[in-house]
Amino acid sequence: MNISLSRFGFSCLLFGAIALTSCRNQAPSSRSPNTLQPNKTVTITLSGWQSNPNETRLLHQVLQNFEAKNPDIHVKHEVINSEYMDVIKTRLIGDVAPDVFYLDALEAPLLMQYNVLEPLEPYIIPAFELADFEPSLLNAFKHNGKLYGLPKDFSTLALIYNKKAFAAAGIAQPPKTWDQFMAASKALTIDQNHDGKIDQYGFGLAPELARQVFVLKAFGGQLIAPNGYATFAEMNSLKGLQLVIDQYRRDRTSAQPTDVGATSGSEMLGQGKVAMTIEGTWAIPYFKETFPNLDFATAEIPTINGKPGTMAFTVAYVMNRKAKHKAAAWKLIAYLTGSEGMSAWAKQGLALPTRRSVLAGSGYRQNPLYAPFVQSASYSTIWQAGQNLPTIRMNFNNQFISALLAEQPLPQAMKKAQETANREIYLAR
After folding, report:
1. Taking 60 as the threshold, does the pLDDT of residue 29 lie above it?
2. Contact yes or no for 74/44 (Cβ under 8 A)
3. Residue ranges of the alpha helices (H) in 347-406?
4. Which residues lie below 8 Å from residue 355, measured CB to CB, with a gap of 6+?
């Protein structure tokens, strides 16, 4: 691959230009950042993506509530589902980016570094209760001591399983250790005609880095070194990843979505192609809407090497540094991430609230389906690892699937992925 055309290299060149123009275009203001001009209605834009139409309908309701409380502000909401971050980056370069937009923790380090986001501390007053946010999630949107985003929600990963399949296999409880998980996967894998064609796999695997970081860390491995270069090909990282490969290749008790004509672990479980999968809270409303007859339950992910582990994914509201109406943009962010707005948003069940007070009052901790996601937050690994992660992710995913398909041994595949990623990182610096 030509490094000059890679997404990471391309972004660095473009955002270098943004950083220069951003600094030149900052004009001093005599008004407080929290002050709107009187008797003037302003329009601010809000961009994000949607998981399903219900999500957008709920957000529109929340925005209507905001506009009712702030009649001098109109919010224009835009949904971008295709190549979201490419669209946002392109618009930032062209000075036509939205005033407020979603920013995934994965992408946050790059944008925070290149001076395109508005620092939020000057807008925050004590009554906003910033300390109410889960600190680890808040820290995902800090850079050089400045806060650039407020996390709107989050989800960990948990084990989701078919209760009827468990009962048929004589499994009374969800597995708590990796050995128990492997035994359950074998018991749940069914070849009805004994012809080598598996009708139900024990586990539905998502073969991507976003789902494997806690696995490679189980034996002391690391994804990225302090210098920003990839280090996942080291022996301790390979120990965890090899467990995934062995289950798929040697035991044949797991399947990836493409093996069974599905698009996700949730779909595999819903269609009865697998009996267990690992997904986030977003799967719960999906099952209820798409597979209403599925009798499912959730549990914390089984420990690996005696260590608990899972991933955590979070998205923040951030403000464009060149937003024309920053006071209005902040009012919107403050409402959406305040107790009232977040409580209304949390009702959808797609993700968990990031304010501890809202989470405590949501009932999710007492809900059997959501409790494992809440309980695992304390030991989760946030899906973020510096500005090089997109490059590392792409190279890891390509080679890991190659190892999964037995096209090359895992150590060779990971060595190739690591070397390629680090070469691209070096050339982009």
Report:
1. no
2. yes
3. 356-362, 371-375, 389-404
4. 129, 132, 133, 134, 337, 339, 342
DSSP one-letter code for 132: G
d(CA 403, CA 242): 10
Looking at the chain, the number of H-run helices and the number of E-run strands are 17, 12
The predicted pLDDT at position 37 comes to 59
Task: Work out the pLDDT band at 285, boundaries 50, 70, 90.
Answer: very high
The CATH number of 158-312+387-428 is 3.40.190.10
| Tokens coding 299 | 């549990």
Using a pLDDT cut of 90, give the percent of the chain over it: 86
- The CA distances from residue 267 to 49, 214, 255, 336, in Å, are 21, 23, 12, 31
**2 pLDDT exceeds 50?**
no
Rounded to whole angstroms, the Cα distance separating 131 from 356 reads: 9
Distance of alpha carbon 59 from the chain centroid: 19
Task: Give the mean model confidence (pLDDT) for residues 353-358.
Answer: 98
pLDDT per residue as tens digits for the range 202-239: 999 999 999 999 999 999 999 999 999 999 999 999 99
Boundaries of every domain in the chain: 34-155+313-382, 158-312+387-428
Report how far apart, in Å, the C-alpha atoms of 254 and of each of 209, 258, 376, 404 are: 17, 12, 23, 11
CATH of domain 34-155+313-382: 3.40.190.10
